[in-house]
Specification:
The chain is an alpha/beta fold. It has 8 helices and 10 strands. The strands form 4 sheets. Strands 1-3-5 form a 3-stranded parallel sheet. It starts with a strand and ends with a strand.
Length: 199
């Protein structure tokens, strides 16, 4: 799903405010819910936007990520966005600067599209910091392709148990860097893009 931010916001070129972005995110969430695609890639294309504040980016793009500590209760669960994989594209220098500032402050990462084939993400880059354990797990997943924790454990040849591999892969999924599907009792993970670099 490609979301052209310039069309979403009308004629505005400089975007700010979490409240405004939250309303726009609501429109995107509605499109996701009405989509026939489960857990879609959502590419926020900022082409034509001059600037976007960190609070705007946080509410619009990162608002599609699951919360680190899930809230309880039916009302709060209804507020959780549907599963989606947010990606940014078409960043101006000012939008990129705000994105970098936000991910560094939040200690998280964003995925920036470099090459798309329709709505398939072929090449992307990570913006922000990924700790060494997650970075090495992501590299192993990129090398192997679709894999389970058991498969990565068997190939690694290092003293990391299967539970640790499961935890790392689950963390990559919660950061929306890897997709997953059930295969019997195990999750099969695959990277969000065929190539995923850093920088």
């Amino acid at each position: 799903m490609i979301v052209k931010v310039a069309e979403l916001v009308g004629r505005q070129l400089n975007l700010a405010g979490a409240t405004f972005a939250g309303k726009l995110r609501g429109q995107v969430v509605e499109k996701i819910r009405n989509s026939e695609v489960l857990a879609p890639l959502v590419v926020f294309d900022f082409d034509g936007i001059e600037s976007a504040s960190a609070s705007f980016l946080k509410a619009l793009v990162f608002g599609l990520l699951p919360e680190a500590e899930p809230r309880t209760g039916l009302a709060q669960e209804a507020e959780q966005p549907p599963e989606a994989f947010p990606v940014v594209a078409g960043l101006s220098p000012l939008v990129r600067e705000e994105l970098v500032d936000y991910v560094e402050l939040a200690g998280t990462v964003a995925v920036e599209a470099i090459e798309l084939n329709g709505e398939e993400l072929l090449r992307a880059r990570l913006v922000g910091h990924l700790d060494d354990a997650l970075k090495s797990t992501l590299c192993a997943l990129l090398r192997k392709g679709a894999s389970t924790a058991t498969e990565l454990h068997a190939e690694a040849g290092i003293a990391i148990n299967i539970t640790a591999w499961n935890n790392r892969l689950s963390d990559l999924h919660s950061r929306r860097l890897a997709r997953r599907r059930r295969n019997g009792k195990q999750w099969v993970y695959e990277p969000i893009a065929r190539e995923l670099g850093h920088g």
